[in-house]
Structure formats: C-alpha cells, structure tokens
Amino acid sequence: MIVRRQGEAFVLIRQHDHARISGLMARHWRNRPEPYPSVVYAIEYHDVGWQTLDHTIHWNETADAPYSFENFPLEPKLIAYREGIDRVEKRDGYAACLCSMHYASFFVDSDEPQAVAFRDRELERQKALMRHFSDEDRSRLKENLHLLQVCDNLSLFLCFNRPGENTHPWYRDGVKLGSSHYRPVWESSHVIRLEPNPFDSSFVAEIPYQVVGRDRRPLSKGSLRVQIHGE
To answer: Which of 2, 39, 162, 187 could staple 191 via S-S, CB 3.0–4.6 A?
Structure first.
C-alpha cells in the first residue's frame, strides 16, 4: 500500500493502481521508448506482485498505522517482488528484465542476507533473459529502466501528496532522478503540469483510494481524478 496520513485517518492506494498510472504516463511520453509494448508493459505491471498483499490492510502495531510499501516486512515483500516478476516474465521477457532490474536496484548496497539472495537471484535472471534480446534492445535497457523509475516517481508524487499540494519530503524540490528533473506545478486542485513537459498530449489519471480511521474502520472509497497537461 501507499499510505498518506490525513488528520486522524489514512488514505490508502494499492500499489498496482499506482503502477497503472505510471504506465499511462509512459503511453503519453513524448520520446517513445523501444521496444514500445514491452517497456510500457513493464512500467504498467512493475508492482503487480503487490496485488495479493494489498488485498488486505496489514496493520503495523508498533506504529499504530497501516503498513506501507516502505516499512512492510522484508520477507513477504521479497516474495511479492519475485512473484510479480515471475508473472511479468510469463508475458514478456524484456518487461520482466526491466522489472527485475528495478527491484534489484533497491538492494545494491544491502548486506541483509535475504535481500542479497534476492538481488543475486535477480541478476542471474537478468543474464538469462538478456541472451534472448537483440544487441539494440539490450543497449536500451538502461534508458528504459530510467523511464520506468521516472514514471514510477511521478505517479508516486500524485499518490503521496494531497491534490493541489507538494508537501511530501521526497518531492518538495520536484521529481529528480539522475539527470532528469521535473517540477510539478498545480494549476488547480485537480490539474497539474510538469516543467519541462515530457508528455505528447494531455490525459486524465484516475487513482482509486480508500480511507480508514485510526480505529481501523473503513471510512470511504473514491477515485482521485487528475488532469495532466501535455502539448
């Protein structure tokens, strides 16, 4: 889950719903990635492994709040990562390689035994998958991974911040990743643009959410609609 505190309640967004917004952004990206179907599929489905975990709200007793993807226990999280990549691989090997690279990057400097085992297994998966790619597609992996990560972060910006606001500490200076730097500008509470604009046209993102109270009771459900300006 993506968890945003709202007074005495919590706004919850499922990971796969957020990833679908990432995929929508990729479809509207001005500089079309190649191989296009595989890259877009990877971006849209990179969090599909969370579907089972996000079916239920898991409560962090220590924090007295729902677990988020940030603090979810490592072992079940790694299982979800692996199962999600496995699921993508059944559909598209190139997409699976991008998802594997994305998740393995979380643990580059980790010395946690479970994380190291996960990372090493995914590096082996990547090597096996790459044998089936053309030289050209293999050479694009790094830039396509970068696009996945940028779209992931831009979608997270919409999920972590209340409409019309930019208060989450990760994004107060915009969305930065490597040489990419996009500054979100709210034109109203439900209309946003990015500077510089990476999109080829305007589109609407719909983000389903649910709200639960501190007493763990469900309060409401809805869908946040945000118009994203493009050229």
So the answer is: 187
